[in-house]
Amino acid sequence: MVSLSFLRLTALVFACTGIVSPTLAYILQVHEARERIPAGFSLHGAASPDTVLDLRIALVQSDFAGLEERLYDVSTPSSTNYGKHLSKAEVEQYVAPKPESVTAVNAWLANNGLRATPISPAGDWIAVQVPVNKANELLGAHFSVFNDEKTGHQVIRTLSYSIPAELKGHLDLVHPTTTFADIQPLVPVISPRHKSRTQADSNFAADTVPASCDEEATPACLQALYGIPSTPATQSSNVLAVSGFIDQFANQVDLQTFLKRFRPDMPPSTTFTLQTVDSGQNDQDPSEAGVEANLDTSYTVGLATGVPTRFISVGDNTQDGIFGFLDIIHFLSGETTPPHVLTTSYGANEDEISVNLVQNLCKTYAQLGARGTSILFSSGDGGVSGSQASGCSTFVPTFPSGCPFLTSVGATQLIAASGLVTETAASFSSGGFSNYFPTPAYQQTAVDTYIVKTLEGGTVNKGMFNASGRGFPDVSALGVNFVIDVGGDTGTVDGTSASSPLGEAAVIALLNDRLVAEGKPPLGFLNPLLYSEPGASALNDVTTGTNPGCSSAGFPAAQGWDPVTGLGTPNFSKLLAAALAV
């Protein structure tokens, strides 16, 4: 058994000096390292030397800076190139590694008796299989078995690894190595319904929001709250995709039951199509119905009336060591016409994942955004303590909400008083500032204003967060007491994973339908528009509530952007007017 003290000592030695690979004359330099084992994991012992690791290697992209520039150019309303999204080939020209990088990395592997296989459309990611003993020599690492104390699962990781000095500037990342992460659906278990609701009292006037919606949220509640139209979409090219992970299956019978009760105006045959990644499935046994999957598909189909909806089930046979998050983006990047909207209701804590991996995954979101896909992620359900409530001494940003190339969605709840219904921040709505990404230009003014005015120049919660980090969420939507059917049973659920697919993805998909019908491009990467004056003024500002955690009150909601509810919740007619004006 390799002791923890030995692992730490080895990492320290590697960090201070170059070492020579024991098998070949390569001078190794530490590329990534952790100071300690992450909380929630414990060392079990050295990994068996014969165990074969499936490693992924990211090569340095030839011109990501150029792609980022083009992404903002086609996504910023004031640009003359707004909406002129890139083709698959154009994106790949920016992210494909330089020939000399491919040659250098392949030569290194070949000299060690290894051969890699390209696994991304542009060839910037490759895969190689290597036994533990070889990987330890190749990377100057000590791969060990660690116990995930929460799930009981075991993973093989290392606290540090090195690469040849000659490959600096060619090889960006080896994975999975120093990443210790646990993907989580962001919705708790289903709860009993507050009362029995009939079809009749679920269909009320679109300009009223009954007080009952604070107890049970239905499609009619969201239609009234955000002005979401029930008029069917007409554009078949406008696809809304919902991602599914960790064996969360979307049940067709439950969907039909849901639509019959809450959207009887829709054809009874209305459903979603299925795509699979990594040997994914969609088991239709009622006992296998997933709370998360049913929630996401019921409300995207039930709110984005007539929009073609896909459920993309990512199986357990993931090849990326990060839940399948990378695999699904590579899958969609390989499509000639990717969906116009992709919503994901899963996440982790940012500090569980290596900086290099987070940055590389973020780059893949930029690739899809440049092609016209709006990528939305739930911000998390732990307030300022992370994706789920946890003990912490400083605020915990969530992943991937800190990535500047996607739209992070927080949650609100309804307060009924004196016959009026208002929105306030949901206390579980994760929000804060990334420790990995700086504040992007599109939100700099909004973030600075919040820190100066609401956090008193950063003195409130001082030392608990990174004031120069990318702020999240960007927007929010209702996330409390959603009625769903699961395995024949009916109940309610809360969570930001309700907010992303329901209040935001469905709205964006319907906006895209109207834009495409007018001969305009889909919205694509949303944030530059949302943070512009026309975009921000088309949202309902939420100014009350906080997101406590880490033995603190968290951040307070405020006028304008805040790290609880973002810029606010959608107003369909105003957003449509802003989009058509562009």
TrEMBL record:
Q: Could you tell me the keywords of this UniProt record?
A: Calcium, Hydrolase, Metal-binding, Protease, Serine protease, Zymogen
The record places the active site at 292, 296, 497
Q: How is the cofactor bound?
A: Binds 1 Ca(2+) ion per subunit.
Domain Peptidase S53 as annotated: residue spans: 216-582
Give cofactor(s), names only: Ca(2+)
Query: What Gene Ontology biological process does one annotation of this record name?
Result: proteolysis
Record keyword Coiled coil present? no
Q: Where is this protein found?
A: Secreted, Extracellular space
Matching SUPFAM superfamilies, A to Z?
Protease propeptides/inhibitors (SSF54897), Subtilisin-like (SSF52743)
Residue numbers binding Ca(2+): 541-542, 560, 562
Annotated PROSITE patterns: SEDOLISIN
Q: Does the keyword Hydrolase apply?
A: yes
Record's Gene Ontology CC terms?
extracellular region
Protein name listed in UniProt: Tripeptidyl-peptidase SED4
The protein's organism comes out as Trametes pubescens
